[in-house]
Specification:
404 residues, mainly alpha, globular
Protein backbone atom coordinates (compact mmCIF):
# COMPACT_ATOMS: atom_id res chain seq x y z
CA UNK A 1 0.00 0.00 0.00
CA UNK A 2 1.76 3.13 -1.27
CA UNK A 3 -0.85 5.60 0.00
CA UNK A 4 1.40 7.09 2.75
CA UNK A 5 4.11 7.89 0.18
CA UNK A 6 1.62 9.33 -2.29
CA UNK A 7 -0.39 11.42 0.15
CA UNK A 8 2.08 12.65 2.78
CA UNK A 9 4.96 14.97 1.85
CA UNK A 10 6.61 14.65 5.25
CA UNK A 11 6.33 10.87 5.29
CA UNK A 12 8.15 10.91 1.95
CA UNK A 13 10.89 13.05 3.50
CA UNK A 14 11.23 10.72 6.47
CA UNK A 15 11.22 7.73 4.11
CA UNK A 16 13.98 9.06 1.85
CA UNK A 17 16.06 10.34 4.76
CA UNK A 18 15.74 7.03 6.56
CA UNK A 19 16.67 5.03 3.47
CA UNK A 20 19.79 7.14 2.85
CA UNK A 21 20.63 7.10 6.54
CA UNK A 22 20.54 3.33 6.82
CA UNK A 23 22.47 2.79 3.60
CA UNK A 24 25.37 4.80 4.97
CA UNK A 25 25.06 3.44 8.49
CA UNK A 26 25.39 -0.12 7.24
CA UNK A 27 28.74 0.74 5.67
CA UNK A 28 29.97 1.79 9.11
CA UNK A 29 28.23 -1.19 10.69
CA UNK A 30 30.30 -3.51 8.51
CA UNK A 31 33.53 -1.51 8.59
CA UNK A 32 33.92 -1.01 12.36
CA UNK A 33 34.01 -4.71 13.38
CA UNK A 34 36.15 -5.57 10.36
CA UNK A 35 38.70 -2.87 11.20
CA UNK A 36 38.76 -3.91 14.87
CA UNK A 37 39.26 -7.55 13.91
CA UNK A 38 42.05 -6.63 11.51
CA UNK A 39 43.81 -4.68 14.27
CA UNK A 40 43.34 -7.26 17.04
CA UNK A 41 42.30 -10.64 15.52
CA UNK A 42 40.04 -10.99 18.58
CA UNK A 43 36.32 -11.80 18.58
CA UNK A 44 36.12 -10.33 22.08
CA UNK A 45 37.55 -7.03 20.86
CA UNK A 46 34.83 -6.96 18.18
CA UNK A 47 32.17 -7.68 20.79
CA UNK A 48 33.50 -4.90 23.03
CA UNK A 49 32.46 -2.38 20.38
CA UNK A 50 28.88 -3.21 21.36
CA UNK A 51 29.75 -2.78 25.03
CA UNK A 52 31.25 0.66 24.33
CA UNK A 53 28.00 1.67 22.61
CA UNK A 54 25.68 0.22 25.23
CA UNK A 55 25.82 2.79 28.07
CA UNK A 56 25.51 5.86 25.79
CA UNK A 57 22.60 4.16 24.04
CA UNK A 58 20.77 3.56 27.33
CA UNK A 59 21.36 7.05 28.74
CA UNK A 60 20.73 9.07 25.58
CA UNK A 61 17.95 6.80 24.35
CA UNK A 62 15.95 7.46 27.51
CA UNK A 63 16.82 11.15 27.58
CA UNK A 64 16.13 11.51 23.86
CA UNK A 65 12.69 9.98 24.34
CA UNK A 66 11.80 12.47 27.07
CA UNK A 67 13.23 15.30 24.96
CA UNK A 68 11.13 14.21 21.97
CA UNK A 69 7.97 14.47 24.10
CA UNK A 70 8.83 18.07 25.01
CA UNK A 71 11.07 19.71 22.40
CA UNK A 72 10.99 20.43 18.68
CA UNK A 73 11.33 17.00 17.09
CA UNK A 74 12.52 18.40 13.76
CA UNK A 75 15.30 20.37 15.44
CA UNK A 76 16.36 17.27 17.38
CA UNK A 77 16.71 15.34 14.10
CA UNK A 78 18.87 18.07 12.53
CA UNK A 79 21.21 18.61 15.51
CA UNK A 80 21.78 14.92 16.20
CA UNK A 81 22.26 14.25 12.47
CA UNK A 82 24.99 16.91 12.34
CA UNK A 83 26.73 15.35 15.35
CA UNK A 84 26.69 11.91 13.73
CA UNK A 85 28.19 13.46 10.59
CA UNK A 86 31.11 14.88 12.61
CA UNK A 87 31.79 11.63 14.48
CA UNK A 88 31.64 9.51 11.32
CA UNK A 89 34.04 11.86 9.52
CA UNK A 90 36.44 11.43 12.46
CA UNK A 91 36.20 7.64 12.05
CA UNK A 92 37.16 8.07 8.39
CA UNK A 93 40.20 10.18 9.26
CA UNK A 94 41.31 7.67 11.90
CA UNK A 95 40.94 4.74 9.50
CA UNK A 96 43.13 6.49 6.92
CA UNK A 97 46.04 6.82 9.37
CA UNK A 98 49.02 4.48 8.87
CA UNK A 99 48.21 2.96 12.27
CA UNK A 100 44.51 3.51 13.17
CA UNK A 101 43.81 4.01 16.86
CA UNK A 102 41.73 1.25 18.47
CA UNK A 103 40.84 3.56 21.37
CA UNK A 104 39.54 6.19 18.93
CA UNK A 105 37.29 3.57 17.32
CA UNK A 106 35.74 2.69 20.68
CA UNK A 107 35.33 6.35 21.71
CA UNK A 108 33.83 7.46 18.39
CA UNK A 109 31.53 4.42 18.33
CA UNK A 110 30.27 5.43 21.78
CA UNK A 111 29.69 9.03 20.64
CA UNK A 112 27.85 7.84 17.53
CA UNK A 113 25.71 5.63 19.73
CA UNK A 114 24.84 8.61 21.94
CA UNK A 115 23.86 10.88 19.03
CA UNK A 116 21.94 8.17 17.18
CA UNK A 117 20.09 7.11 20.33
CA UNK A 118 19.04 10.69 21.06
CA UNK A 119 17.77 11.05 17.48
CA UNK A 120 15.78 7.86 17.03
CA UNK A 121 12.85 8.56 19.42
CA UNK A 122 12.14 11.90 17.71
CA UNK A 123 12.18 10.29 14.27
CA UNK A 124 9.89 7.44 15.28
CA UNK A 125 7.53 9.74 17.18
CA UNK A 126 7.05 11.87 14.05
CA UNK A 127 5.91 9.05 11.76
CA UNK A 128 2.38 8.68 13.25
CA UNK A 129 1.93 12.48 12.95
CA UNK A 130 2.57 12.39 9.19
CA UNK A 131 -0.04 9.73 8.23
CA UNK A 132 -3.58 8.82 9.22
CA UNK A 133 -4.24 6.20 11.89
CA UNK A 134 -5.57 3.77 9.28
CA UNK A 135 -2.39 4.16 7.22
CA UNK A 136 -0.05 3.18 10.06
CA UNK A 137 0.34 -0.51 9.10
CA UNK A 138 1.16 0.51 5.52
CA UNK A 139 3.51 3.24 6.79
CA UNK A 140 5.34 0.72 9.00
CA UNK A 141 5.79 -1.67 6.08
CA UNK A 142 6.99 1.11 3.77
CA UNK A 143 9.40 2.42 6.41
CA UNK A 144 10.78 -1.08 6.86
CA UNK A 145 11.04 -1.52 3.10
CA UNK A 146 13.04 1.70 2.71
CA UNK A 147 15.25 0.79 5.64
CA UNK A 148 15.94 -2.67 4.32
CA UNK A 149 16.80 -1.44 0.85
CA UNK A 150 19.57 0.50 2.55
CA UNK A 151 20.41 -2.43 4.78
CA UNK A 152 20.58 -4.70 1.73
CA UNK A 153 22.82 -2.51 -0.39
CA UNK A 154 24.96 -1.25 2.49
CA UNK A 155 26.66 -4.51 3.55
CA UNK A 156 27.23 -5.57 -0.06
CA UNK A 157 28.82 -2.24 -0.94
CA UNK A 158 30.68 -2.24 2.37
CA UNK A 159 32.14 -5.68 1.78
CA UNK A 160 33.43 -4.64 -1.66
CA UNK A 161 34.83 -1.34 -0.39
CA UNK A 162 36.63 -3.06 2.47
CA UNK A 163 38.44 -5.37 0.05
CA UNK A 164 39.16 -2.76 -2.65
CA UNK A 165 39.56 0.57 -0.83
CA UNK A 166 39.59 -0.05 2.93
CA UNK A 167 37.37 0.97 5.83
CA UNK A 168 38.09 4.71 5.47
CA UNK A 169 35.98 4.87 2.30
CA UNK A 170 33.07 3.19 4.09
CA UNK A 171 33.11 5.86 6.80
CA UNK A 172 33.48 8.68 4.27
CA UNK A 173 30.47 7.57 2.23
CA UNK A 174 28.44 7.17 5.42
CA UNK A 175 29.33 10.77 6.37
CA UNK A 176 28.07 12.00 2.99
CA UNK A 177 24.81 10.07 3.48
CA UNK A 178 24.37 11.63 6.92
CA UNK A 179 24.77 15.06 5.34
CA UNK A 180 21.99 14.34 2.81
CA UNK A 181 19.67 12.89 5.46
CA UNK A 182 20.19 15.85 7.79
CA UNK A 183 19.36 18.30 4.98
CA UNK A 184 16.16 16.37 4.31
CA UNK A 185 15.22 16.45 8.00
CA UNK A 186 15.58 20.23 7.97
CA UNK A 187 12.82 20.43 5.31
CA UNK A 188 10.18 18.82 7.53
CA UNK A 189 7.23 20.92 8.67
CA UNK A 190 6.90 21.84 12.32
CA UNK A 191 4.73 19.50 14.40
CA UNK A 192 3.82 21.29 17.64
CA UNK A 193 2.84 19.11 20.56
CA UNK A 194 -0.93 18.71 20.83
CA UNK A 195 -1.05 19.04 24.64
CA UNK A 196 0.99 20.28 27.57
CA UNK A 197 4.44 18.75 27.87
CA UNK A 198 6.99 18.36 30.64
CA UNK A 199 10.72 19.04 30.35
CA UNK A 200 13.05 16.04 30.24
CA UNK A 201 13.80 14.79 33.74
CA UNK A 202 14.26 11.62 35.70
CA UNK A 203 10.65 11.95 36.79
CA UNK A 204 9.27 12.22 33.24
CA UNK A 205 11.40 9.27 32.12
CA UNK A 206 10.16 7.32 35.13
CA UNK A 207 6.54 7.99 34.19
CA UNK A 208 7.22 6.61 30.72
CA UNK A 209 8.79 3.48 32.21
CA UNK A 210 5.85 3.08 34.60
CA UNK A 211 3.39 3.32 31.70
CA UNK A 212 5.27 0.64 29.74
CA UNK A 213 5.53 -1.71 32.73
CA UNK A 214 1.85 -1.22 33.46
CA UNK A 215 0.91 -2.57 30.04
CA UNK A 216 1.93 -6.22 29.82
CA UNK A 217 1.13 -6.29 26.10
CA UNK A 218 3.84 -3.68 25.53
CA UNK A 219 6.22 -5.30 28.00
CA UNK A 220 6.07 -8.54 26.04
CA UNK A 221 7.19 -6.84 22.83
CA UNK A 222 10.29 -5.53 24.60
CA UNK A 223 11.23 -8.71 26.44
CA UNK A 224 10.82 -11.01 23.42
CA UNK A 225 13.07 -8.82 21.29
CA UNK A 226 15.74 -8.53 24.00
CA UNK A 227 15.78 -12.31 24.48
CA UNK A 228 16.01 -13.02 20.74
CA UNK A 229 18.78 -10.51 20.06
CA UNK A 230 20.84 -11.21 23.18
CA UNK A 231 21.00 -14.95 22.63
CA UNK A 232 20.85 -15.37 18.86
CA UNK A 233 22.27 -12.27 17.10
CA UNK A 234 25.19 -13.65 15.04
CA UNK A 235 26.68 -10.51 13.43
CA UNK A 236 29.72 -10.22 15.75
CA UNK A 237 30.76 -13.66 14.47
CA UNK A 238 30.67 -12.79 10.77
CA UNK A 239 34.28 -11.53 10.52
CA UNK A 240 35.51 -14.79 12.10
CA UNK A 241 33.29 -16.90 9.84
CA UNK A 242 34.53 -15.13 6.71
CA UNK A 243 38.20 -14.97 7.73
CA UNK A 244 38.78 -18.17 9.71
CA UNK A 245 35.99 -20.66 8.91
CA UNK A 246 35.36 -20.15 5.20
CA UNK A 247 38.73 -18.44 4.61
CA UNK A 248 37.12 -16.11 2.08
CA UNK A 249 37.17 -12.47 3.32
CA UNK A 250 35.12 -11.43 0.28
CA UNK A 251 32.05 -13.31 1.59
CA UNK A 252 31.77 -10.98 4.61
CA UNK A 253 29.30 -8.77 2.77
CA UNK A 254 27.22 -11.81 1.81
CA UNK A 255 26.92 -12.90 5.44
CA UNK A 256 25.61 -9.47 6.42
CA UNK A 257 23.40 -9.24 3.34
CA UNK A 258 21.75 -12.66 3.70
CA UNK A 259 19.65 -11.60 6.70
CA UNK A 260 18.73 -8.35 4.98
CA UNK A 261 17.56 -10.17 1.84
CA UNK A 262 15.26 -12.30 3.98
CA UNK A 263 13.98 -9.20 5.78
CA UNK A 264 13.37 -7.39 2.51
CA UNK A 265 11.40 -10.30 1.05
CA UNK A 266 9.30 -10.54 4.23
CA UNK A 267 8.59 -6.80 4.09
CA UNK A 268 7.75 -6.75 0.39
CA UNK A 269 5.22 -9.57 0.88
CA UNK A 270 3.74 -8.16 4.10
CA UNK A 271 0.24 -7.43 2.79
CA UNK A 272 -1.09 -10.41 4.76
CA UNK A 273 -0.22 -8.68 8.06
CA UNK A 274 -3.32 -6.47 7.81
CA UNK A 275 -5.51 -9.59 8.16
CA UNK A 276 -3.91 -10.75 11.43
CA UNK A 277 -5.38 -9.75 14.79
CA UNK A 278 -3.38 -11.86 17.27
CA UNK A 279 -0.18 -9.84 17.05
CA UNK A 280 1.42 -11.26 20.22
CA UNK A 281 1.31 -14.84 19.00
CA UNK A 282 2.89 -13.95 15.66
CA UNK A 283 5.70 -12.05 17.43
CA UNK A 284 6.47 -15.04 19.68
CA UNK A 285 6.40 -17.63 16.90
CA UNK A 286 8.47 -15.49 14.54
CA UNK A 287 11.09 -14.76 17.21
CA UNK A 288 11.37 -18.48 18.02
CA UNK A 289 11.78 -19.25 14.30
CA UNK A 290 14.55 -16.64 14.17
CA UNK A 291 16.48 -18.51 16.87
CA UNK A 292 15.90 -21.83 15.14
CA UNK A 293 17.31 -20.66 11.81
CA UNK A 294 20.37 -19.10 13.49
CA UNK A 295 21.02 -22.41 15.25
CA UNK A 296 20.78 -24.24 11.90
CA UNK A 297 23.24 -21.78 10.38
CA UNK A 298 25.65 -22.58 13.21
CA UNK A 299 25.68 -26.31 12.47
CA UNK A 300 25.72 -25.94 8.65
CA UNK A 301 29.09 -26.36 6.93
CA UNK A 302 28.20 -25.37 3.36
CA UNK A 303 28.36 -21.62 2.74
CA UNK A 304 25.20 -21.63 0.61
CA UNK A 305 23.23 -23.36 3.38
CA UNK A 306 24.50 -20.88 5.99
CA UNK A 307 23.35 -18.03 3.75
CA UNK A 308 19.90 -19.62 3.27
CA UNK A 309 19.47 -20.10 7.03
CA UNK A 310 20.55 -16.51 7.70
CA UNK A 311 18.08 -15.31 5.07
CA UNK A 312 15.24 -17.22 6.73
CA UNK A 313 16.27 -15.87 10.12
CA UNK A 314 16.11 -12.33 8.71
CA UNK A 315 12.61 -12.95 7.35
CA UNK A 316 11.40 -14.28 10.71
CA UNK A 317 12.95 -11.35 12.57
CA UNK A 318 11.31 -8.87 10.19
CA UNK A 319 7.87 -10.40 10.71
CA UNK A 320 8.32 -10.11 14.47
CA UNK A 321 9.50 -6.49 14.09
CA UNK A 322 6.57 -5.46 11.87
CA UNK A 323 4.00 -6.65 14.38
CA UNK A 324 5.86 -5.01 17.27
CA UNK A 325 5.84 -1.71 15.39
CA UNK A 326 2.12 -1.99 14.65
CA UNK A 327 1.36 -2.54 18.34
CA UNK A 328 3.55 0.40 19.34
CA UNK A 329 2.22 2.88 16.80
CA UNK A 330 -1.46 2.00 17.12
CA UNK A 331 -1.66 1.90 20.91
CA UNK A 332 0.75 4.49 22.39
CA UNK A 333 -0.65 8.04 22.94
CA UNK A 334 1.29 10.96 21.42
CA UNK A 335 2.07 12.37 24.87
CA UNK A 336 4.09 9.23 25.61
CA UNK A 337 5.33 8.45 22.12
CA UNK A 338 8.83 9.86 22.47
CA UNK A 339 9.56 8.21 25.82
CA UNK A 340 8.12 4.90 24.68
CA UNK A 341 10.12 5.17 21.45
CA UNK A 342 13.19 5.50 23.66
CA UNK A 343 12.22 2.34 25.51
CA UNK A 344 11.48 0.59 22.23
CA UNK A 345 14.93 1.53 21.01
CA UNK A 346 16.42 0.03 24.17
CA UNK A 347 14.51 -3.18 23.59
CA UNK A 348 15.95 -3.66 20.13
CA UNK A 349 19.39 -2.24 20.97
CA UNK A 350 20.28 -3.59 24.42
CA UNK A 351 19.78 -7.13 23.16
CA UNK A 352 22.03 -6.74 20.08
CA UNK A 353 24.77 -4.89 21.94
CA UNK A 354 24.78 -7.41 24.77
CA UNK A 355 24.49 -10.17 22.18
CA UNK A 356 27.68 -9.03 20.48
CA UNK A 357 29.59 -9.40 23.74
CA UNK A 358 27.97 -12.78 24.48
CA UNK A 359 28.77 -14.07 21.00
CA UNK A 360 32.36 -12.81 21.10
CA UNK A 361 33.10 -14.35 24.51
CA UNK A 362 31.44 -17.66 23.60
CA UNK A 363 33.32 -17.85 20.29
CA UNK A 364 36.69 -17.18 21.94
CA UNK A 365 36.00 -19.79 24.63
CA UNK A 366 34.49 -22.28 22.17
CA UNK A 367 34.04 -21.70 18.41
CA UNK A 368 32.15 -19.27 16.20
CA UNK A 369 29.88 -22.09 15.02
CA UNK A 370 29.23 -23.21 18.58
CA UNK A 371 28.37 -19.66 19.63
CA UNK A 372 25.77 -19.41 16.84
CA UNK A 373 24.15 -22.80 17.45
CA UNK A 374 23.93 -22.48 21.25
CA UNK A 375 22.65 -18.89 20.99
CA UNK A 376 19.86 -19.89 18.61
CA UNK A 377 18.66 -22.65 20.91
CA UNK A 378 18.80 -20.32 23.95
CA UNK A 379 16.66 -17.83 22.00
CA UNK A 380 13.90 -20.40 21.52
CA UNK A 381 13.86 -21.17 25.24
CA UNK A 382 13.88 -17.49 26.26
CA UNK A 383 11.07 -16.50 23.90
CA UNK A 384 8.94 -19.45 24.99
CA UNK A 385 9.35 -18.59 28.68
CA UNK A 386 8.36 -14.98 27.95
CA UNK A 387 5.11 -16.13 26.28
CA UNK A 388 4.29 -18.27 29.32
CA UNK A 389 5.07 -15.44 31.74
CA UNK A 390 3.21 -12.62 29.92
CA UNK A 391 -0.11 -14.19 28.99
CA UNK A 392 -1.65 -10.77 28.23
CA UNK A 393 0.97 -10.34 25.52
CA UNK A 394 0.40 -13.81 24.05
CA UNK A 395 -3.39 -13.24 23.91
CA UNK A 396 -3.19 -9.69 22.49
CA UNK A 397 -6.01 -9.10 19.98
CA UNK A 398 -6.20 -5.82 18.06
CA UNK A 399 -10.03 -6.14 17.92
CA UNK A 400 -10.49 -6.24 21.70
CA UNK A 401 -7.44 -4.49 23.19
CA UNK A 402 -8.60 -1.25 24.85
CA UNK A 403 -5.59 0.74 23.64
CA UNK A 404 -5.85 -0.42 20.02
Amino acid sequence: DLAPLRESRDFRILWWAGSIFYLGQMLTYVAVPWLVYQLTESNLAVGLVGLAELLPMIVFGLYGGALADHGDRRKILVVTGALQLVFTAALALNALLPEPSLVAIYVLSALLSAAGSAQRPAREALVPRTVTHQQLPAAMSLASLGTHIGLLLGPSLGGLLLVWKGSGWCFAIDAFGLLLATVLFSRLREYPHTSDTEPPSIGSIGRGVKYALGRRDLLGTYVVDIAAMFFALPVALFPALAHDVFKQPQVLGLLYTAEIVGSLIATATSGWTARINHHGRVIVLAAAAYGGFVALAGVSHALWLVLVCLGLSGAADMISALFRQIIWNQTIPDTMRGRLAGLEMLSYSVGPYGGQVRAGVTADLWTARGAMASGGLACIVGVGLTAVWLRDFWSYDTRTNEYA
